């Protein structure tokens, strides 16, 4: 199969590497940035570095547009114009309605792999980036069934889990679980920075709740501005709902309405449990909290102990005390059985532990 | 010195253990819950389990009230009534204005140690819980200098770092860096749970941004309801400001105002950097992002590698891919020098790593 990748950054480069792994595909790459194109070739993410878009797409059977969200609409149009009649064209943008609405070509299928959010650039591209990752596809009624099937089978072969979803539902969902958390993290840091100024440097060590809530604050504007703007209406809806919820909490606090505060907090506790269980690949998670001295080697000892006992750590977060001398480590493992096993193993190592 | 602890949970029990470590103090404990009192005695957190408040306070020179925030005002009143004339009385509540306003006794000093937020109960009490922890004190103009000095020196001996702050400033600051993040985490999970219902279980794996932002959601209502209510006005102020900021973002999105979105995101990025540097015990942090396969032993290998190289991990967070097969590990270490060393060590282990 002849694969073309337009935009050879982290995602485009990884698509190329995934395609080339089996040896059954020939990958042609093109990028406006000559250095990125050279690097993609040097890293063997592509077989051929094309000299331009028409050359890149000559004879292509699958073409991926892996450019920033802001450049999607025009780049997809250019690729559709240059691509052969029987070539399926897809993109990898984080929002889907705009690009899908702009192209009702039977060859076009919108796409969005949930992978690689934490880094960027072809230097981090990997052939196994999509192993097990959800890869949303947003076909339209106009989409050719034959071409969709070709794309689907290719994605399966990269290890991804392609999943069809309406562009509308995709964008609304991502607004709630990704774009809104980014906005709130930004708002939190800026507000705390204001308080920091007011307190004239007498502000305390910001606690673990603050650090957790603001880890994604200030995500690269080069990526996120386009995501926010291309999903503006869905995000505005989420902001409206958020503001309404915050106004509700504000009223309850103003009225000193204990019953309302309790009910609101209990509901959040229950919602969090449901989301943790449903959200992570359908896996039920068990959360443990371990008190540990914060010195080199302790996390290693714990992780090794769990690893030796056959328990895989799904997620973890260390909440250090302000002076870093100690901390509470939250560890998530898959399911109650692993949880019980992990508790036993950690107790065996002599650390205080509770199942949260 | 004769120390009395009223309320022998995590904090009260740890105060007792810290006091008893040196052997120079006699610790008397009392708790409304007989089982907790027995357990505190069994764990050697206290020397004497008193039969009631008057017995507990007979001859006391320092008394700590370590009960939930909602019971503070009345318990401090009862302790002041029963305590000797030259006994300093302090508390450990997370909010300070209410309890301080209620007691202008020269023997009373409000207090709030930043420690132990992640667990509860005397079974997790430890003599070194306060090592290096900031311990806010909110003396009033009425406070006896002699008694404040006694309390201060005792706290220093437990390893804590007592720091005087106005009750007003304390509560406003904590509203921004602790109480508000808890409220937003609650709001986020409830909103996403709504979206989950709407998407009829077709919602994706919720991403790392979502998990980070909601880790503290649904914190125990038994503790947090009182914290929220006792700091209601400061928290309402924070909510007002948050709502105003969200309305600003909403307007920029509605107007598709790219320049405003870029400026807002850049400001948050800068604010986060400032807070990371200023917030954690004044230490400058360096953040690294490492791509790792997500299998038992890998985190151990990394943590061990850094530990052997003398680099201490201040904080870390694993963002797994939806299928858990791999992830990006964010690691925070102290300062640029440790950062460079950590990068070198991690590269030596063969993992892709960038300094964020």
Layout of strands and helices, then pairs:
The structure is a homodimer of 356-residue chains.
Chain A: E1 2-6, H1 10-21, E2 26-30, H2 34-42, E3 48-49, H3 53-57, E4 62-65, H4 72-82, E5 88-91, H5 97-102, E6 108-113, E7 134-138, H6 145-157, E8 161-164, H7 167-198, H8 208-213, H9 221-230, H10 232-254, H11 258-279, E9 285-293, H12 298-308, E10 313-320, E11 326-334, H13 335-348, E12 353-355
Helix pairs in contact in A: 7-10
Can you characterise this structure?
- By secondary structure, chain A is α/β, with parallel strands linked by helices.
- The first copy, chain A, contains 13 helices and twelve strands.
- Chain A has helices at 10-21, 34-42, 53-57, 72-82, 97-102, 145-157, 167-198, 208-213, 221-230, 232-254, 258-279, 298-308, 335-348; strands spanning 2-6, 26-30, 48-49, 62-65, 88-91, 108-113, 134-138, 161-164, 285-293, 313-320, 326-334, 353-355.
- In chain A, strands 3-2-1-4-5-6-7-8 form an eight-stranded mixed β-sheet, with helices on both faces.
- In chain A, strand 5 (88-91), helix 5 and strand 6 form a beta-alpha-beta unit.
- In chain A, helix 7 (167-198) packs across helix 10.
- The first copy, chain A, starts with a strand and ends with a strand.
- At the A-B interface, helix 7, helix 8, helix 9, helix 10 and helix 11 of A face helix 7, helix 8, helix 9, helix 10 and helix 11 of B.
């Amino acid at each position: 199969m002849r694969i073309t990748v337009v935009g050879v950054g982290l995602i485009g480069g990884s698509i190329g590497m995934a395609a080339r792994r089996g040896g059954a595909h020939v990958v042609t790459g093109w990028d406006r940035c000559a250095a990125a194109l050279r690097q993609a070739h040097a890293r063997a993410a592509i077989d051929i570095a094309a000299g331009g878009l028409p050359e890149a797409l000559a004879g292509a059977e699958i073409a991926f547009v892996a450019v920033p969200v802001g450049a999607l609409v025009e780049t997809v149009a250019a690729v559709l114009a240059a691509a052969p009649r029987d070539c399926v064209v897809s993109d990898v943008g984080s929002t889907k309605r705009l690009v899908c609405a702009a192209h009702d070509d039977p060859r076009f299928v919108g796409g969005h792999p949930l992978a690689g959010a934490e880094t960027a650039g072809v230097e981090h591209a990997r052939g196994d980036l999509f192993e097990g990752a959800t890869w949303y596809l947003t076909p339209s009624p106009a989409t050719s069934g034959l071409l969709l099937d070709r794309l689907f089978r290719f994605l399966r072969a990269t290890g991804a889990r392609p999943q069809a979803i309406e562009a509308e539902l995709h964008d609304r969902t991502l607004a709630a679980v990704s774009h809104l958390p980014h906005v709130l993290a930004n708002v939190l840091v800026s507000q705390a920075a204001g308080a920091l100024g007011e307190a004239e440097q007498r502000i305390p060590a910001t606690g673990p709740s603050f650090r957790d809530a603001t880890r994604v604050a200030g995500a690269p504007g080069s990526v996120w501005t386009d995501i926010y703007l291309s999903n503006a209406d869905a995000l505005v809806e989420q902001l409206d709902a958020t503001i309404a919820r915050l106004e509700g909490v504000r009223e309850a606090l103003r009225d000193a309405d204990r019953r309302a505060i309790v009910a609101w907090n209990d509901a959040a506790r229950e919602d969090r449990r449901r989301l943790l269980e449903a959200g992570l690949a359908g896996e039920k998670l068990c959360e443990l909290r371990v008190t540990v001295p914060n010195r080199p080697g302790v996390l290693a000892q714990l992780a090794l102990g769990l690893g030796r006992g056959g328990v895989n750590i799904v997620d973890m977060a260390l909440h250090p005390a302000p002076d870093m001398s100690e901390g509470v480590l939250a560890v998530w493992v898959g399911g109650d059985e692993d949880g019980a096993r992990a508790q036993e193993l950690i107790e065996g190592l002599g650390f205080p532990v509770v199942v949260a």
